[in-house]
Automatic annotation (TrEMBL), chain A:
Source lineage: Bacteria, Pseudomonadati, Pseudomonadota, Gammaproteobacteria, Alteromonadales
Pfam families the UniProt entry points to: ketoacyl-synt, Ketoacyl-synt_C
Family: Belongs to the thiolase-like superfamily. Beta-ketoacyl-ACP synthases family.
Molecular function GO labels: acyltransferase activity
Domain Ketosynthase family 3 (KS3): 3-409
Cited InterPro entries: Beta-ketoacyl_synthase, Ketoacyl_synth_AS, Ketoacyl_synth_C, Ketoacyl_synth_N, PKS_Beta-ketoAc_synthase_dom, Thiolase-like
EC annotation from Swiss-Prot or TrEMBL: 2.3.1.-
UniProt keyword terms in alphabetical order: Acyltransferase, Transferase
Protein name, as recorded: Beta-ketoacyl-[acyl-carrier-protein] synthase family protein
Organism: Catenovulum sediminis
Pathway: Lipid metabolism; fatty acid biosynthesis
UniProtKB/TrEMBL annotation, chain B:
Pfam families: PP-binding
Annotated ranges, domain Carrier: 2-80
Protein name, entry field: Acyl carrier protein
């Protein structure tokens, strides 16, 4: 039986570059950075003092009426969904699909809620914590809150696989629609990362860049002198539909989601396999799932964290798969501009990839100095028009969770 | 200790049904505006947190879903909290 085609009909994102897709996309096209000194807590004692925080003014446009207790992750999801469902293409999906699904990725779930109430518990001798603490700390609390808000009656669950959570959510949604379980799923990822516990944890792991004096170019994916990632936060969502149902309701199709590949490296709690063999296999599986080969890829959104080991392993994986063409394919590591949104990063990068396909454009970053013998086609400063028929988006999480998605230009 | 009317309204609107604040008065039982027992505990917590006070067990036992907005304001002010316009 032929697999059903799955198409993307709406996208939205909120992160350090803006509260909606139009603002985020404008800034990505300009190569603007959202990395600044940390404002939410005192980071003076940390090695790293900068990050991609979302502007807290988002709370001014967020409708929290009737939301008894919402974690910060929940707030970002609501913000992202609120903007998504205002879009012309997404209006009416709840009427069209009574059994619409919601699958979101989050690496941390309600960590901030936990941390905030843990502090209060110690301050008040264990007496006064939020009565809704338990329902707000599990990873699925976000999906649960959103399902009530939006009346989601189909599959509704969270996926938590560290930094590949968002990409795995999208891939799982692809499989469910392809197999006829559902016709429409809202999917993506969300992460509220700037909690003191998480930040201190990554700081002690020595995983983040210490280029505090140059925030905009502190994270240097695939570059000489890279010294770590920079934290980001936000949410990104996509509306996925079966092609026939999207066409029947007259929706404009932005792109087709054509491939999903997953592997586990089973190697180390945080380090990647040096030769990138597990990442390469995920990419190859995604290509096979899409029914294309590596020569067909015109664009790569890499995981590209800016850490020495991750970028080396991902480069090795790409070089092994794409061969000499590796240095020709445009590669856009947007974490330099947005910060690493952990469980939401794969979703944001999928949204970015859809926008690049839609506009046939390769967006720039702010800084790139190639390693010796590891030249990649990374644009700095200016966006370029480019024919993109098939694009790859990679997400590699702690514990060697490797996900690759293929998105393609849509042809009826 | 003070709490502004806006802060108090935000707490109430997060626990009551949509539009409740447009109709509520000090004599109506809060449960008529969609407040359930979980929402009630949460509302009390949020008021304690915002005002930095702690209601004793006796006061909490007196406050029920049958309580009115007026009852709630009484126990808040009895703890020395002033409800101010802004």
């Amino acid at each position: 039986m032929d697999k059903r085609k799955v198409v993307v009909t709406a996208v939205n994102a909120c992160c350090s570059l803006g509260h909606d897709i139009d603002t985020v996309w404008h800034n990505l096209k300009q190569g603007n950075s959202g990395i600044k000194p940390i404002s939410r807590f005192n980071a003076e004692r940390h090695f790293t003092k900068i990050g991609g925080e979302i502007d807290d003014a988002y709370r001014d446009i967020l409708d929290l009426t009737g939301q008894s207790a919402v974690s910060k992750n929940g707030e970002l999801s609501l913000l992202c969904g609120q903007g998504l469902f205002l879009q012309e293409n997404a209006k009416g999906i709840f009427e069209s699909y009574p059994d619409i699904g919601l699958i979101l990725g989050s690496g941390l779930g309600g960590l901030y809620f936990s941390e905030d109430n843990l502090k209060k518990m110690y301050e008040t001798g264990g007496k006064r914590i939020h009565p809704m603490t338990v329902p707000n700390v599990d990873p699925n609390s976000i999906v649960s809150a959103l399902s009530r808000r939006w009346q989601i009656h189909g599959h509704q669950f969270s996926i938590s696989t560290a930094c590949s959570s968002g990409a795995n959510a999208i891939g799982t949604a692809l499989d469910l629609i392809r197999n006829g379980r559902l016709d429409c799923i809202v999917t993506g990822g969300v992460e509220y990362t700037f909690t003191t516990l998480l930040y201190a944890g990554f700081d002690q792991l020595r995983a983040m860049s210490r280029c505090n004096d140059t925030p905009e170019t502190s994270c240097k994916p695939f570059s000489q002198g890279r010294d770590g990632f920079i934290m980001g936060e936000g949410a990104a969502m996509l509306v996925l539909e079966s092609e026939e149902r999207a066409l029947s309701r007259g929706a404009t199709i932005l792109a087709e989601l054509t491939g999903y590949g997953v592997t586990g490296g089973a190697y180390h709690v945080v380090k990647p396999i040096e030769d990138g063999s597990d990442g390469k296999k995920a990419m190859a599986l995604a290509l096979s799932d899409a029914g294309i080969d590596s020569d067909n890829i015109d664009f790569i959104s890499p995981h590209g964290t800016g850490t020495a080991l991750n970028d080396q392993a991902e480069y090795n994986a790409m070089a092994a798969l794409f061969g000499p063409k590796t240095s020709d394919i445009p590669v856009v590591p947007i974490k330099q501009l947005t910060g690493h949104m952990l469980g939401a990063s794969g979703a944001l990068e999928a949204v970015h990839t859809v926008k690049c396909i839609e506009d046939q454009i390769v967006t720039p970053i702010a800084y790139y100095q190639a390693e010796a013998n590891q030249k990649l086609n990374i644009s700095v400063g200016e966006a370029n028009q480019h024919s993109i028929k098939h694009a790859m988006s990679n997400s590699f999480g702690f514990g060697n969770n490797n996900v690759s998605l293929i998105m393609s230009q849509y042809h009826h | 200790m003070k709490i502004t009317v806006i802060e108090l309204k935000n707490i109430l609107s997060s626990e009551l049904e949509k539009g409740a604040l447009d109709h509520i008065d000090e004599s109506t039982n809060l449960e008529h505006f969609g407040l359930d027992s979980v929402g009630f505990f949460t509302m009390i917590y949020k008021i304690e947190d915002a005002c930095n006070i702690e209601f004793d067990e006796e006061t909490l036992d007196q406050l029920t879903l049958k309580s009115t907005l007026g009852d709630l304001l009484s126990v808040i002010t009895a703890k020395g909290v002033e409800v101010v316009p802004a």
